[in-house]
Amino acid sequence: MENMTWIWWALGAAAFFYLMRPSVPADAKLAPADVKETVSSDKALQLVDVRSAGEFGGGHLSGARNIPVDQLGSRLGELSKDKALVVYCQSGMRSARAIKILRGAGYAKAKHMVGGIAAWQGAGLAVTR
Length: 129
Fold this sequence. Notes:
CATH superfamily: Rhodanese-like domain
Mean pLDDT: 89
Radius of gyration: 16 Å
Number of strands: 5
Structural class: alpha/beta
CATH architecture: 3-Layer(aba) Sandwich
Number of helices: 6
CATH class: Alpha Beta
Oligomer: single chain
Shape: globular
Helix content: 40-55%
Strand order of the largest sheet: 1-5-4-2-3
């Protein structure tokens, strides 16, 4: 009986986290290959890594600036609403939160890299240290 209680708690927790994850509008999603193409073709692109400074130091996309998601709201003035903007994190959860903040503040061109830097590296793409 104790094992069943644990299973129900685990299923409930999984359902809670699934339902509470930030949703990203379809027009705000980019695959790593699309981000690579955008970085190559748009020299004015704003590329923002929303991970911690320590994570950023361990490897990031070339040309990215580090604005941790918990600082994003207070640092919006560093970003242009008129230029394309791509945010990413480790796996896509924090950048999904960042998109919600950015879109809510009027950054209509903001996009999020699906799967984060893990997907970028998984596609065999290079990071800068």
